[in-house]
Amino acid sequence: MLTLLYFFPSIIAFSRHHRRRTAINHLNAIFGWSVIGWIAAFIWALTSPGKGLAMAATAAPESTGDVPEHFAAQLLTDIVERDLTTRSL
């Protein structure tokens, strides 16, 4: 019974399919004997299992309609050509 209580944070992490479950298990196994190590592993196991700190990539936003895409592309092309001609002088 005490062994189950000792590894309770690891059990939670593996049952929730936490993406850092092996690290939680190592923390629990090595530092679980200290109260601070066990509490840290327990809290970490309760954090969101599938999400990290980075945000998921989303698709590029649609045009706002203020400037048509072909106009913006032509404007950018003109600026680059002008920059290239002024540098060559």
Automatic annotation (TrEMBL):
InterPro entries: Phage_imm. The lineage of its organism: Bacteria, Pseudomonadati, Pseudomonadota, Betaproteobacteria, Burkholderiales. Keywords: Membrane, Transmembrane, Transmembrane helix. This is Superinfection immunity protein. The chain crosses the membrane at residues 26-46. It comes from the Bacteria.
